[in-house]
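Revision sheet: structure tokens.
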Amino acid sequence: MKTLSKIYIWVIFALLYAPIIILVLFSFNRAGSLNHFSTFSLYWYKELFRDPTALNALKNSLYLAVGSSLLATVIGTFAALGINKMRNKFFKNALTSVTNIPMMNPDIVTGVSMMLLFVAAASMPFLPIKFGAVTMLIAHTTFNLPYVILSVLPRFKQMDKHLTEAALDLGCTPAQTFFRVELPSILPGVISGLMLGFTLSLDDFVISHFVSSPDFQTLPLYVYNQTAHEVKFSMYALCALMVFVILGLLLAVNFAGSKGKNKKAKVLPMGGIQ
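Predicted:
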């Protein structure tokens, strides 16, 4: 059984990571072909930085990912705070369930609904909305919100409530209590929600397809348009760079987390330091 479980795990890992490894490997192929590997070269990476359309799409994607994840993190953190402080358990559970619905909805349903909403808004003379950067920012922030709330809300439940009560008793205002006591306690959840929102926004295609405009194109939309013809090997280089960046971020986060755990491990239960 142990041998079969090991084989099963290796097969799963191969299915998950073999396409990524092939993509990264052939991004260094000078021949520009998937049939054979000629020589190791950075030629396609140089071509990537000579392609203004691809770089503009990357810039738009980063703008959307950073902006929507920051907005969703701020709104989602305060939403989680409000849900956590609700006293009516029935209404609290109902609101939590409603918050989780967008995560279970198919992306195409969310994309079509957002498109219809913006079309209706654009028809109003006092609310001029044009499809493009603004509509995509609103859409990306909207679908990131439930993931941020899902990441932050458990941190509020795990937090020691006596710390908040002690801060209020010592003269802190509710705002000071939140920023000085509660926010440091929930910070890991906030950072997780921020990174999750950034990744989801950077990767999104379906919702962006319905709320985008020809003059504002993100990287997934640009790659999709490339598949209608022949995909440039510079796209392989671009995807490989994204893999390297995400891998670097994950290593940095894991290193910071392990370093924080080591510091906590050195603190004695009575508050002393070894």
